[in-house]
């Protein structure tokens, strides 16, 4: 779960609005291969009230988009279906 949090939360000293892991190739590749695993991790790590933070919500939605941007490279067959991700979007 630390892996999910490290992709959503910025490193110490960097404001949330300036933290975009999508620009870091190794993180981007990891996120793109994750599919629904990102949704599962977010659901486990963040209570609903923390997801109401607009900056955090923007990051979560951006990661969710990236995690399904290239479905052919999602490594886990189960992760290709956005089951948990859809629940997060409608919660």
Topology (elements, then pairings):
Layout lengths: L1 H7 L16 H8 L3 H10 L2 H4 L2 H14 L15 H8 L1
Would you write up a description of this structure?
With 91 residues, the chain is mainly alpha-helical. The protein has one domain. It has 6 helices and no strands. The protein starts with a helix and ends with a helix.
State the helix count. 6
Terminal CA distance: 20 Å
Characterize the largest beta sheet: strand count, sense, and whether it forms a barrel: none
Which strand-content bin applies to the residues? under 5%
Quick one: overall form?
A: globular
Structural class: mainly alpha
The ordered string of helix (H) and strand (E) elements is HHHHHH
* Residue share in helix: 55-70%
The number of distinct structural domains comes to 1
Integer average pLDDT: 84
Q: Radius of gyration in whole Å, from Cα?
A: 12 Å
Oligomeric grouping of the chains: single chain
Q: Quick one: how many beta strands?
A: 0
Low-confidence stretches: none
């Amino acid at each position: 779960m630390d892996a999910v949090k490290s992709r959503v939360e910025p490193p110490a000293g960097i404001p949330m609005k300036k933290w975009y892991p999508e620009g870091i190739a190794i993180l981007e590749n990891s996120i793109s291969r994750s599919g629904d695993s990102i949704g599962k991790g977010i659901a486990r790590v963040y209570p609903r009230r923390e997801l109401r933070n607009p900056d955090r919500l923007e990051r979560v939605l951006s990661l969710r988009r990236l995690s399904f941007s290239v479905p052919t490279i999602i490594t886990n067959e189960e992760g290709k279906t956005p089951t948990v991700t859809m629940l997060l979007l409608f919660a």
